[in-house]
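PROTEIN DESIGN WORKSHEET
SECTION A - STRUCTURE
LENGTH: 177
TOKENS:
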């Protein structure tokens, strides 16, 4: 039993030294899961990379699985005004308090053709990034920074997109009409 514990601890230590910190740094810099796998110098099982990638997304707030928004004020925005309104709200609340609320988890599991349609028009690199999120829940929240901030307005104006923009500091939601 002691040998098993020691071997697991040694394996965890080696992983942290060889790959763990690198994965966290790459998540922080908006790398996709596939980019992380390609960039690692130390051979690491994909399942281990996926878990660390997911944990880092949660730790850095790039992905939030649940957010209580019941008492937030809902505003509507015309598609033509969305970019400027998002810019204003992100400036006001800060990127760390701004999220894309999406039902990609539900769509990906139950309507894969609709998920593919939502990603149509994006580059392979952008698709790879969005599909890196595990979307374990039906509704997830993606922080509006980096790549998500660039892509979100284009996803939101698609006909079948069921997304809203959530700003936790001002407790507001923008829905596209």
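SECTION B - SEQUENCE
RESIDUE ASSIGNMENT:
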């Amino acid at each position: 039993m002691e040998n098993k514990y020691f071997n697991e601890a040694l394996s965890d230590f080696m992983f942290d030294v060889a790959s763990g910190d690198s994965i966290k740094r790459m998540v922080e810099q908006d790398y996709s899961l596939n980019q992380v796998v390609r960039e690692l110098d130390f051979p690491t099982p994909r399942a281990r990379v996926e878990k660390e990638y997911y944990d880092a997304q949660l730790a850095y707030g790039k992905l939030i699985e649940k957010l209580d928004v019941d008492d937030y004020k809902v505003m509507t925005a015309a598609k033509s005004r969305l970019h400027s309104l998002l810019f204003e709200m992100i400036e006001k609340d800060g990127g760390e308090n701004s999220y894309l609320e999406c039902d990609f988890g539900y769509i990906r599991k139950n309507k894969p053709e609709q998920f593919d349609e939502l990603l149509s028009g994006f580059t392979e690199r952008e698709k790879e990034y969005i599909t890196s999120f595990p979307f374990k829940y039906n509704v997830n929240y993606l922080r509006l920074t980096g790549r998500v901030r660039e892509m979100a307005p284009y996803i939101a104006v698609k006909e079948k997109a069921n997304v809203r923009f959530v700003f936790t500091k001002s407790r507001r939601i923008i829905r596209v009409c």
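SECTION C - NOTES
Residues 73-176 form one domain.
The chain has a mean pLDDT of 84.
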